[in-house]
Amino acid sequence: MLELKHISYTVQEGDDKLGILNDISLTIDDHKLVVFTGPNGGGKTTLAKVIMGLVTPTSGQILWNGQDITPLSITERAKLGISYGFQQPPRFKGLTVRDLLTLASGNEKLSKDQCCQYLTKVGLCANDYLDREVDVSLSGGEVKRIEIASILARNSQFMIFDEPEAGIDLWSFTRLTETFEQIHAKGSATMVIISHQERIISLADEVIVVGDGAIRHRGSAQEILPQILADTLGSCPVLKKEANA
Ligand SMILES: Nc1ncnc2c1ncn2[C@@H]1O[C@H](COP(=O)(O)OP(=O)(O)OP(=O)(O)O)[C@@H](O)[C@H]1O
Ligand SMILES: [Mg+2]
Question: Quick check: helix, strand or coil at residue 93?
Answer without folding.
Answer: strand
